[in-house]
Amino acid sequence: MQRWFTVFVVLIAFGVISSCGGSYKSPVSGGGGTAATITDPISSVGAGSTYTFSASTPSTNGYTPGIMWSITGAGNLSTPMNNGFTSSVVYTAPASVPSPNSVTIMATPSDTMLTAATNTFSIGVAGAPTSPYIAMLAGRYAFEVSGFDANGEPSTIIGNIAADGSGKITAGSLDLNTGSAATARSSSLNGTYTLNSTLNGTITLSANISAAAQPLLFTVALTPGGKSGTLTAGDAAGFEMKGTLQQQDTSAVSLDKISGEFAFELESNPAERVATVGRFAIAANANIAGLADSSKSGAGPLLTSAAVVGRVIIDGLKETTKNTEIVGEVRGRGLMFAVDLIDPVTKKPSPPLAARALEATKERGLLVGKGGLYGSTLRMAPPLTLSEAEAKEGLTILTDALQAVNDEASTR
C-alpha cells in the first residue's frame, strides 16, 4: 500500500511540473498542427510552365516564423516571398519533359520543432494544365489594387489582363503609381495563373517596368461564376496591396447603357495628397454635367465644379439657341462664357440687340454683363460655388430672354 501511494505522488508531481513553463513547445502540441502545409498542391505541371506554390506554418504556441523552399528534381525555384507564417515561391518547369519527370518541392519551417511539407508531382507535355479549375478564369479582366510599397509609399496598380482559360496570361497592360514618382506604364503583360477547387489561386505577371521587382505576384479568390474576385498583390521588393478583379464586357459599353447619374471618387499619391469626390450625369447626347469637390492635403477643400457645371450652361445654350436667329455663337470654358448677338438679316454684330437682351434678362431676375469688340456680346462669369440646380435655373432665364428678343426682332 505504501509503495502504490508513493507512485501516485510521483505521478502527480510529474503532472504539475509538466504543466509549468509556458515557453516549452511540445512537438505534439500546438493546436494548429506541428508541420508546414502546402496550401495548393498539384499532381502535374506542363513542361515550360510556371506554378506558384504557397505554404503556411502554425502561428500559435510561440513558433518561430519563416519558411525555406527547396527542390529535388528538374526545374528551378525563384522569387521566394516570406510574410511571417506564410510564404510563396515560383517554380519553373524545364522546357522539355525530363527523365525522370518526378519533382518534389519542400517547404521547411525555420522552427526546428516543426516538420516540413512536401509536394511531389510530374512534368508532362507542354501546355498540360495543372488544374481543371483554371478554365474558370478566361477572357479579359480589369483589375485595381492599392496599398503601400516596401518604403511605406502609397501605391496603386490598375490594368487589364487576358486569360486564355488554360493557365496563361497572354496580353494586358497596367499603370503603376508609387508615391510622388511618375506613373510607370506597361503595355506588354504576360504570365501564368493557377486555380484550385475553391477558386483560390495565384496570378504571376511579368511587365516591362523597372518600378517594381519582377514578377508581380497576385493571390486571387474568384467568385463562383468566375466573373469577379479579390486580389492581394506583392513582389520581392515588399509591395503589399489589395483590390478587385472584374471581367470586362464590351457589349455593356454604349452611351445608352451608361446614361444616368453616377458617383465617383479619385485619389492621388503625391506628397501633397489630393482626393476628389463628386457626381455626374451622362445624357443621351453624350453631354456630361455634374459636381466635383477636391481636398488637398494641408490646403482644405478645392471646389472643382466649374468644368462640369459650366457644361450645363454652355451645352444647354448651344442646344436651345441653335434655331435662334439673333445668336451668332455661344462660347466659353468652365464658368466663363459668352453669347454673341447678331442682326438676323445682315448677320453682323448687333449692339442694340445685346442691350435689349441685357434688359430682358434683368427683367427676369438675372444679371449679366455686356462687352466685346463691338459691344454685342453678353458675358457671364458666375461664382465657382454655383450649383447644378442654379446653373439650370440661370440657363432657363437666359434662354427665355434670348427667345423673347429674337421674337421681337423677327416682327420688325
Account of the 3D structure:
The protein is of the alpha+beta class and 412 residues long. The protein is built from 4 helices and 25 strands. The strands form 5 sheets. The protein has an 8-stranded antiparallel β-barrel with strand order 9-10-11-13-14-15-16-17. The longest helix has 23 residues, at 388-410. The radius of gyration is 34 Å and the shape is elongated. The model is unreliable at 1-32 (pLDDT under 50).
Put the structure in a nutshell:
The protein has 412 residues and is an alpha+beta fold. It has helices at residues 2-18, 306-320, 351-363, 388-410, and strands spanning 37-38, 44-46, 50-56, 67-72, 76-83, 86-92, 102-109, 117-124, 138-148, 154-164, 168-178, 184-186, 189-195, 200-207, 216-222, 228-234, 240-247, 260-267, 274-282, 288-296, 300-303, 327-333, 336-341, 369-371, 377-380.
Q: How are the strands of the largest sheet arranged?
A: 9-10-11-13-14-15-16-17
Helical residues, percent: 10-25%
Computed over alpha carbons, the radius of gyration is 34 Å
Number of domains: 4
H and E string: HEEEEEEEEEEEEEEEEEEEEEHEEHEEH
Mean pLDDT: 79
How widely separated are the two ends?
135 Å
CATH hierarchy class name of the largest domain: Mainly Beta
For CATH, the homologous superfamily of the largest domain is named as Quinohemoprotein amine dehydrogenase alpha subunit, domain 2
Topology:
Blueprint (H helix, E strand, L loop, with lengths): L1 H17 L18 E2 L5 E3 L3 E7 L10 E6 L3 E8 L2 E7 L9 E8 L7 E8 L13 E11 L5 E11 L3 E11 L5 E3 L2 E7 L4 E8 L8 E7 L5 E7 L5 E8 L12 E8 L6 E9 L5 E9 L3 E4 L2 H15 L6 E7 L2 E6 L9 H13 L5 E3 L5 E4 L7 H23 L2
Parallel strand pairs: 2-8
Antiparallel strand pairs: 1-3, 3-6, 4-7, 5-6, 7-8, 9-10, 9-17, 10-11, 11-12, 11-13, 13-14, 14-15, 15-16, 16-17, 18-19, 19-20, 20-21, 22-23, 23-25, 24-25
Helix pairs in contact: 2-4, 3-4
